[in-house]
Amino acid sequence: MSSTPKQGVAGRRQARGRAAAARGRYHHGDLRRALIDAALALTLKQGPGTYTLADLCRAVGVSPAAPYRHFESLDQLTAEAAREGFAELDGMTAASFRGADWQARLASCVADFLGFVRAHPAHAVVMFETRAQTVAEPDFNPLAPLDLPASSNATEAAVYDCWRAGYASFARYAQGLAQALADSPLAPAVAGRQRALETALALFTIVYGIAAQWLDRALPDDWLDRGARKAFDKIVLPWALGVAAQIESASGTKVRAGRASG
């Protein structure tokens, strides 16, 4: 019984220390950044949808009321983290589809996307696996225009902006892919907007599947080494050559094999 007051004093001292540390960390207004970083860390450690705003407060050492100066909900916070990820992805893939031939250009696209996932795994999970809990999400269909209602609060505004960023990122990727393959045996697969979008979606599905396997530790690290060379050679290139062979069979033309630089 006599130890209880000492424990109480120690607890109060620890609380004051945490509060002082929080004030030192956040008096310049970086609580928003700290909360996003905590969400990314817990996403990577536990998975998406496994924590609350209160959990983030405990992680950064602030009161449960503190986040509401920056975020009205967890959905708003994760949407802004995801939008941040799309901006980073676009920056890393802006120069994709480079190379002397179509295989090299395709390889650079795969390397850049998987390089983003490897460098920013938590962002990738938030971007592609996290689902809003309080905002109704439309069926994802990058082949059709994104039609969203007017937002009625900050959470909806953030989630809608995130979805728009994702659609815009995909559209740029599809455009780059169409240009990269325009002089390749796969040219018929990207001739016209609809075909280009469908081919881009097929490739994205394959490449993100590789990323998801890596994130789940079901794929050895070396598949993403050296510009994801093994992933490209063993998965993406056979798919591309298969598409080219289908086109060749349908048209009677011969596949022109390029050589990806490594």
What would your notes on this structure say?
The chain is an all-alpha fold. The chain is about 65% helix and about 0% strand. The protein contains nine helices and no strands. It has helices at about 5-25, 30-45, 55-60, 75-95, 100-120, 120-130, 155-180, 195-215, 225-250. Helix 5 crosses helix 6 and helix 5 packs across helix 8 (about 195-215). The longest helix is centred in the middle third of the chain and has 27 residues, at about 155-180. The termini are far apart.
Which regions have little confidence, pLDDT < 50, spanning 5+ residues?
A: 1-24, 258-262
Largest sheet composition:
none
Shape: elongated
- N- to C-terminal distance: 70 Å
